[in-house]
């Protein structure tokens, strides 16, 4: 089998074939650094991570670029509200973003492109669009993309073109809008006093770029005119990705991205996450509820990326328990002895991932393997380490602790073993509970052996 992924452009599962053999040019939409990212955003970044790790696991060399939107409507608004410079506010949230990425063990991109470093490339692209007749200037010095000039507009989201024609005279200046408002959109926004000191000079006059042109220009600058994969959350489909496709394809005259991949949203208690509903979570909120923040990543991996994930405190705690349980199993099978990855399990794990990143099936395969005592501990441990290269749950950090155990605990453990040998399981459980009350746990090993751990 080979990797198959759902392509939002064709709306079907397709075999993945890169432009250049073994190499993947990948652009994913990154954060707008005007605030701390929420758990929904991190579902998008976890999806990016699992895709990248899967591609590397399958032998591809991935060149991944993620943008940092450090100038747009939201960042400017926030800098005004907080009475700080745009640079200060975006640098603050960029560094929080990187801390959060690291806490979830998400592999860094090869490049994080800051929009403000690519203004020249944006101006060049807008000039090309003007020259080719895909854009026009307005009296106030703004530049708009003329969507009626691009016959393929709306291919991702099946935009109703009759709606567009009805609105043919209309333009939209804000970065975000609904599908019902499909209109000519801003490539360059003429200076407005609300922009404060945020502006650049350009051949079209003083102003700033629209949000959508940022990604088109940065993807081209870093990865070239046609890329293999472009991704983001489903909300990015319209208008952001539709507009990126229109700008890039009209300016460059070639296809923009061969595959578009979109993750579904996180809901909280089955509702859209929003501050006004009081069901809004950031990573630090989640972190205070679990013993390990990677439980959130585990939870995300239990649901296919194209399905909505309903986040509840219970589901998070269940994921935390499962991860704790997994760690117990690892301590049990941990050995210094070198094993080798079990081929049959590695191949079913790989097949699950090749099937449009079926992470929940991949996790199920991992659990089957870890419990399969027909294989040696050393081989199971080696298999797990290979699998974790994709799962990224930092399982290689789990080692049995060399704990000092008092003689009382050892006596209780020995009494429990004796009771077990005599098939007096009720009595054995009483000893186990006593050990637990004292803060320790017994892990049973083959041949009547056991380990005492501190969970
Ligand atoms: P933003 O910083 O708003 O541009 O969003 C960053 C990424 O998070 C984008 O790819 C969005 O599509 C994605 N995203 C936003 N909200 C959610 C959500 N509730 N669930 C999953 N992904 C989301
Ligand atoms: Zn983007």
Q: Helical proportion? A: 40-55%
In DSSP terms, counting alpha (H) and pi (I) runs of 4 or more, how many helices? Answer: 15
The CATH class name of the largest domain reads Alpha Beta
- Structural class, by secondary structure, is alpha/beta
Describe this structure in words.
The protein has 455 residues and is α/β, with parallel strands linked by helices. It folds into three domains: 13-263, Rossmann fold (3-Layer(aba) Sandwich), CATH 3.40.50.620; 278-397, Four Helix Bundle (Hemerythrin (Met), subunit A) (Up-down Bundle); 407-453. Helix content is 43%, strand content 17%. It has a five-stranded parallel β-sheet with strand order 5-4-3-11-12, with helices on both faces. Strands 6, 7, 8, 9 and 10 form a five-stranded mixed β-sheet that branches. A three-stranded mixed β-sheet has the order 14-13-15. α14 runs antiparallel to α15. The two termini are 40 Å apart. The structure holds adenosine monophosphate and zinc ion (ZN). Residues 29, 31-32, 40-41, 43-44, 232-233, 235-236, 263, 265-266, 273 line the site of adenosine monophosphate.
Essential attributes:
single chain, 455 residues, alpha/beta, Four Helix Bundle (Hemerythrin (Met), subunit A), five-stranded mixed sheet, 15 helices, binds zinc ion
Question: What is the secondary structure topology, with strand pairs?
Answer:
Elements: E1 4-7, E2 12-15, E3 23-28, H1 39-57, E4 61-68, H2 73-81, H3 86-103, E5 111-114, H4 119-131, E6 135-137, E7 143-145, H5 161-166, E8 171-172, E9 184-190, E10 207-209, H6 211-223, E11 227-233, H7 237-252, E12 257-263, E13 266-268, E14 271-272, H8 283-287, H9 294-301, E15 309-311, H10 313-333, H11 343-354, H12 359-370, H13 377-391, H14 407-421, H15 425-437, E16 441-445, E17 449-453
Parallel strand pairs: 3-4, 3-11, 4-5, 8-9, 11-12, 13-15
Antiparallel strand pairs: 1-2, 6-7, 7-9, 9-10, 13-14, 16-17
């Amino acid at each position: 089998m080979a990797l198959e992924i759902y392509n939002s452009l064709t709306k079907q599962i397709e075999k993945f074939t890169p432009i250049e053999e073994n190499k993947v040019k990948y652009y994913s939409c990154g954060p707008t650094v005007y605030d701390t990212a929420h758990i929904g955003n991190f579902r998008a970044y976890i999806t990016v991570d699992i895709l990248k790790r899967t591609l590397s696991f399958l032998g591809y060399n991935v060149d991944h670029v993620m943008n940092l939107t450090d100038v747009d409507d939201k960042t400017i608004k926030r800098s005004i509200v907080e009475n700080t410079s745009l640079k200060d506010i975006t640098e603050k949230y960029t560094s929080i973003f990187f801390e959060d990425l690291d806490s979830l063990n998400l592999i860094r991109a090869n490049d994080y492109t800051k929009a403000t470093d690519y203004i020249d490339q944006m101006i060049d692209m807008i000039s090309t669009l003007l020259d080719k007749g895909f854009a026009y200037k307005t009296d106030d010095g703004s530049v708009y993309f003329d969507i009626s000039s691009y016959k393929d507009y709306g291919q991702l989201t099946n935009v109703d073109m009759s709606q567009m024609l009805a609105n043919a005279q209309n333009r939209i200046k804000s970065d975000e809008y609904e599908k019902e408002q499909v209109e000519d959109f801003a490539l360059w926004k003429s200076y407005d006093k609300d922009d404060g000191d945020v502006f650049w000079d350009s051949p079209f006059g003083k102003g700033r770029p629209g949000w959508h042109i940022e990604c088109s220009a940065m993807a081209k600058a870093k990865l070239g005119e046609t890329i293999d994969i472009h991704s983001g959350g489903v909300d990015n489909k319209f208008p952001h990705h539709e507009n990126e496709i229109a700008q890039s394809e009209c300016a460059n005259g070639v296809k923009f991205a061969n595959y578009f991949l979109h993750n579904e949203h996180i809901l909280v208690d089955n509702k859209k996450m929003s501050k006004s509903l009081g069901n809004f979570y950031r990573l630090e909120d989640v972190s205070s509820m679990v013993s390990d923040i990677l439980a959130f990543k585990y939870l995300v991996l239990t649901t296919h990326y194209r399905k909505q994930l309903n986040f509840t405190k219970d589901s998070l705690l269940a994921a935390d328990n499962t991860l704790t349980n997994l760690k117990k199993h690892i301590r049990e099978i941990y050995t210094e002895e070198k094993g080798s990855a079990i081929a049959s399990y590695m191949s079913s794990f790989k097949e699950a991932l090749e099937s449009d990143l079926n992470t929940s099936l991949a996790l199920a395969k991992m659990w089957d393997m870890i419990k399969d005592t027909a294989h040696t501990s050393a081989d199971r441990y080696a298999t797990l380490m290979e699998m974790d290269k994709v799962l990224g749950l930092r399982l290689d950090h789990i080692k049995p602790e060399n704990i000092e155990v008092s003689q009382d605990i050892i006596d209780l453990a020995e009494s429990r073993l004796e009771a077990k040998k005599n098939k007096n399981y009720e009595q054995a459980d009483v000893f186990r509970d006593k050990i637990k009350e004292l803060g320790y746990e017994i892990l049973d090993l083959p041949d009547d052996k056991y380990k005492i751990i501190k969970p």
